[in-house]
Structures are given as structure tokens and as C-alpha cells.
Design goal:
The chain is α+β, with helices and mostly antiparallel strands and about 280 residues long. It has a single domain (about 15-260), classed as outer membrane lipoprotein receptor (LolB), chain A, CATH 2.50.20.20. Helices cover about 20% and strands about 30% of the residues. The chain has seven helices and 14 strands. It has helices at about 30-40, 55-65, 70-85, 140-145, 150-155, 165-170, 175-180, and strands at about 1-5, 10, 90-95, 100-110, 115-120, 125-130, 135-140, 160, 190-195, 200-205, 215-220, 230-235, 255-260, 280. The protein has an eleven-stranded antiparallel β-sheet with strand order 8-7-6-5-4-3-13-12-11-10-9. Strands 2-1-14 form a three-stranded antiparallel β-sheet, with no helix packed on it. Helix 2 crosses helix 3 (about 70-85). The model is unreliable at about 1-70 (pLDDT under 50).
Length: about 280
């Protein structure tokens, strides 16, 4: 992506200049966040079959609260349905790709109002959407690596970025996409006991990652109240293949990590930055 400022050309690389990785957190694991590092697309693809039929959400929510008495498929479907209906949530964790470890923090209000912050070593990049507009801000360490002598001039300033770039970076965190990817390309699912995430009791759902497109992982689902997906932990490589779509590029990945979700129905609209720099884009 190139941003032109008067007579000078500034090339902004992918956030943190990470290698591209599969789309959303795959299979019960971390593809969603893996892409967050490159095009900022983390993917929590895991789970069971597609979303539950209309009118069955209350039933699925009830079975999720029964903990280990519920089937793995129903628990996953219930969790995806709960996330799809959430009015905001927070995603926090890290993704590893080779020797690179990227910390991420996403605040999601809706598909058009969300914010993502990525930190890799000393470099930090923030991208946000406020409706139809997308913005990017990075610290001095990032600009030193990518803009050299202009780093001091650029650090800390908000820039408008093309909608296509903003969508590629933020799109997979939106409720509909995130919840959809939670249920796609999973291997054999099984219940793996109980745990506690940030003080909330949860049931552990394990994905064996034994079919194309799947990834060995565990998903912690709240066992009291709404069956929120509370934490995803990858435990192995994502297999290549599977259904190719926004949730999976079919190439497989060695990306791993841990992602925790919280603040369900408690994240408000994301405010636009003050006086962003409007630069025409090309490329």
C-alpha cells in the first residue's frame, strides 16, 4: 500500500511486516489472530457444523450450560450463536509464527466499529474502523523500520487508509465472521473436562485437528449463563486443505497462540481519531 504525501511517496507495509498466514483462527484455534499479524486477520476456526437453525438458539444455550452432558457439536454451535449475537466484545492474546510473536488486542463493537492493536517486539500498530472510514497509527519503532528518517514525523499520527486495507485487517474480528469461522473446518471434537478462565467456569472442547483445514486446539466455553467462547489455544499445526473461504486459505499454517475473549456486550462504539491525515492511496 502506498500513501502519497505531496511529492513524496511513503510505503506502508503490512502491519508489523509479518508473513501472511491463513485467514481467521482456524479450527478451534488460532488462524484468526495469525492473519492479524499480517493483514491482521485472526481466525478462530474450529468447531462443529454450521450455525444452528433459526429458533434453536435458546435450546442450544441451555444445553451449553449443562457442561459435559452436552454434545461437542451442540456446545460449539451454541457458542458461535452467542458470539454472533453479542453487542461487542474484547479479544486479547498472542500469535506466534516462526520466531515472531505478536501481541494483539481487539475491541469490537460491531462489523463497522472495531479497533485492533498489534505489538511485535518494539513495534506497535493500531488500526480502527468507525463506520465507512479506516485509520492507522504506528509508533516510532515501526516507522524507523519502514520509513527511516521520516519516523519522527510520522510516529503517533493517524492516517486514513483505503477501505480495502481496513477490511482485510479488521474484517475477521466482526461478530458474523468470527462466529462463522469458529464453526468451520474442524476435526474430531470431544469434551476435555472443565476449567476456569478469568474466574468464569468453562467446559473445554478439544479439536483433534485430524482432517484437512483443521488445527489441533482447545476452546473454553462458558458453562454458566451465555455459552461465550472464552479462550482458544492452538496445540499443533493447521493442516492444508479444507473449504476455501474467508476463514481458510487452504495452505495450512504453523501459526499458534492463545486468544482470550471477554467484555461481552460491554464494548461501546469506536470513536474516530482527532484530525487524521488524509492521504490519497495507490497500489
Amino acid at each position: 500500500m502506498e500513501l502519497h504525501n505531496q511529492t513524496e511517496t511513503l510505503i506502508i507495509y503490512r502491519p508489523l511486516d509479518c508473513r501472511p498466514v491463513p485467514k481467521p483462527i482456524r479450527s478451534l484455534a488460532i488462524a484468526i489472530a495469525a492473519c492479524a499479524c499480517a493483514a491482521a486477520e485472526p481466525a478462530l476456526a474450529s468447531g462443529a457444523a454450521a450455525r444452528p437453525p433459526a429458533g434453536q438458539r435458546s435450546v442450544l444455550v441451555g444445553t451449553a450450560s449443562q457442561g459435559t452432558s452436552s454434545s461437542p457439536g451442540k456446545l460449539l454451535a451454541a457458542s458461535a450463536a452467542a458470539l454472533r449475537g453479542a453487542h461487542g466484545y474484547q479479544v486479547k492474546g498472542y500469535v506466534t509464527q516462526g520466531s515472531q510473536r505478536t501481541q494483539l488486542l481487539a475491541r469490537v463493537h460491531s462489523a463497522r466499529s472495531l479497533e485492533l492493536t498489534l505489538t511485535n517486539r518494539a513495534q506497535t500498530v493500531q488500526v480502527l474502523s468507525t463506520g465507512a472510514h479506516f485509520y492507522l497509527r504506528a509508533n516510532a519503532a515501526y516507522w524507523v523500520a519502514h520509513a527511516g528518517s521520516r519516523a519522527a514525523e510520522l510516529a503517533g499520527s493517524w492516517f486514513t487508509v483505503p477501505a480495502s486495507t481496513g477490511l482485510s485487517v479488521l474484517g475477521n474480528f466482526a461478530p458474523n465472521t468470527f462466529s462463522r469461522c469458529l464453526t468451520e473446518d474442524h476435526g474430531t471434537l470431544s469434551l476435555a473436562g472443565t476449567t476456569t478462565i478469568a474466574g468464569r467456569p468453562a467446559v473445554l472442547l478439544r479439536d483433534a485437528g485430524n482432517v484437512p483445514g483443521s488445527q489441533p486446539s482447545t476452546l473454553a466455553i462458558a458453562s454458566q449463563g451465555q455459552p461465550w467462547p472464552l479462550q482458544v489455544v492452538s496445540t499443533g499445526r493447521q493442516r492444508p486443505g479444507g473449504h476455501i473461504d474467508v476463514c481458510n486459505d487452504g495452505k495450512g499454517s504453523s501459526a499458534g497462540g492463545v486468544i482470550t475473549l471477554s467484555d461481552f456486550n460491554a464494548v461501546g462504539p469506536i470513536a474516530p481519531p482527532h484530525k487524521p491525515i488524509k492521504l490519497p492511496a495507490s497500489g
